[in-house]
Amino acid sequence: MVTSVGENTTGLQVGDWVVMVKQQAGTWSTNHNVKVNDVVKIPDHEGLSEVHVATITVNPPTAYNMLTDYVELNAGDWVMQNGANSAVGQAVIQIAAARGLKTLNFVRSRDDIEHLKEQLCGLGATQVLTYEDLNDKSLRDKVKGWLGGKEIHLALNCVGGKETTAMLRYIGKDGHLVSYGAMSKQPFSLPTSAFIFKNLTAHGFWQSRWYLDHSAAEREALMGSLTQLMKKGKFQAPEHEIVSIGKQESDSEATSKIRGIFQKLAAGRYGKKVLLKFEE
Amino acid sequence: MVTSVGENTTGLQVGDWVVMVKQQAGTWSTNHNVKVNDVVKIPDHEGLSEVHVATITVNPPTAYNMLTDYVELNAGDWVMQNGANSAVGQAVIQIAAARGLKTLNFVRSRDDIEHLKEQLCGLGATQVLTYEDLNDKSLRDKVKGWLGGKEIHLALNCVGGKETTAMLRYIGKDGHLVSYGAMSKQPFSLPTSAFIFKNLTAHGFWQSRWYLDHSAAEREALMGSLTQLMKKGKFQAPEHEIVSIGKQESDSEATSKIRGIFQKLAAGRYGKKVLLKFEE
């Protein structure tokens, strides 16, 4: 929340809610003096939760922009993605569903796969498949049936490796592959024929670069689109844990608390976002 | 050469030179009745050799368009490519040189590599390297020196495989990789970091699709740009062999002659273009 603005500052007032879009700017502090251009105003924030707003800066806009910037999509069109249960993947499912788009979602297989499928379908996923399903030759006909004559022109990738190459079998002519992560830590291999005969184009997306390349008005418009979805109940806050740093806590107590969380995060899949709240 | 035009045909006259841009249209015949849209007029053809015109349809426009359609390049800017001694590669070198562009060219190593380097430099190549050179860590500083602070924003690939991945180390921020072939018969592997942090975009180029997507006026303008280069001596005809099919030859004689050539072509690297001439 804006507590004070400098002289000649336009576009922001005391009481406005803002999010920081410059990387690593002021995350670890109660109050911070920032440049106007390092933050984006959250327009019309009444009724939004702190969790919604605290998690709005990176994942939801990544999903939103990838669904907007590369391919013109209309209701009924399909999009596919891997890592579909990632925070961005879940945002893609919800934003796509709100726009009437259909999603073909790929995830790793796991013991509770049916539970995960239910969860993603609850968010609006049209189909959820595992990477193992890609090895099943009967999948081709199934997908063809689902598509009903349509082609998929947008594929989103945060995994890399063979999962991406395999998913690309389902990309249509003039399709676009947008990569925003590499969870598998593997580069991906692309057949030249897809580029030449299907006219595939491959891009990378990075929300930090998007912020640098866009004006304050464009950034605020993006936030407005996302907050509208949140207010309409079409965008759930991600699974999260709020860690409060109390006003009375000493630096060493706070450090120890946060160190414990980082150890858990570093040890493996924490499975939810950790939000720090500095109490005043 | 146009020997007759249908009623209401516009844009072509008897005596015009044309090339066929529809794939496999009429290659094996002395005379052929084609649709206007299946051919492109060679404007202002006086002074051009038949060899120039017979080889103008695919390789020179591929090079020309790849140098034009993806990145705005000005004199002094750099382009890199692998398979630099292919027919398209040589066209890239010559068209780039004519525009004042500098080229970083990669080829397979071979016994007569110095001869090949001389030949490509004779066409206007700025630097010629082998894929083996890419493994040499000192190359990074050498290339840096050549570039003198510039970045390479366009990379052309007809090889695929690891040669392409290795070449991409030298692509700059916001670079474009355009693939038009896969001589190695290997897909290529791209690190996601190049897409995300360097904002790499990867495309495919196919001249046949270009013709389908462009108007008669655009096609003729392209041919005009190429013939101007040829007339100014800035574009050498590729190495070639003209095989004449005499008017007196029987079908079986002609078939046997052509079969012999195909056997040589299929056996390995013929090393030059084969042009058929049907004598009248």
Give the helices and strands, then pairings:
The structure is a homodimer of 280-residue chains.
Chain A: E1 18-20, E2 39-41, H1 50-54, H2 59-66, E3 78-81, H3 87-98, E4 102-107, H4 113-123, E5 127-130, H5 139-147, E6 152-157, H6 161-167, E7 171-179, E8 188-190, H7 192-197, E9 201-204, H8 207-213, H9 216-231, E10 240-245, H10 251-267, E11 273-278
Parallel strand pairs in A: 3-4, 3-6, 4-5, 6-7, 7-9, 10-11
Antiparallel strand pairs in A: 1-2
Helix pairs in contact in A: 2-3
User: Nearest-angstrom radius of gyration of chain A?
Assistant: 20 Å
Q: What is the highest CATH level, the class of the domain at 70-204 in chain A?
A: Alpha Beta
Structural class of chain A: alpha/beta
In total, the number of strands of chain A is 11
Distance between the termini of chain A: 13 Å
Largest sheet of chain A: 6 strands, parallel
CATH-wise, what's the superfamily of the domain at 70-204 in chain A?
NAD(P)-binding Rossmann-like Domain
- Strand percentage of chain A: 15-25%
Give the averaged pLDDT of chain A, no decimals.
Answer: 91
Put simply, the count of helices of chain A is 10
Helix and strand succession of chain A?
Answer: EEHHEHEHEHEHEEHEHHEHE
Spatial ordering of strands, largest sheet of chain A: 5-4-3-6-7-9
Unreliable spans of chain A are none
Inertia-based shape of chain A = globular
Per CATH, which architecture of the domain at 70-204 in chain A? 3-Layer(aba) Sandwich
The most extensive interface between chains reads:
A-B, 28 and 28 residues
- Helix fraction of chain A by DSSP (H/I, runs of at least 4): 25-40%
Oligomer description: homodimer
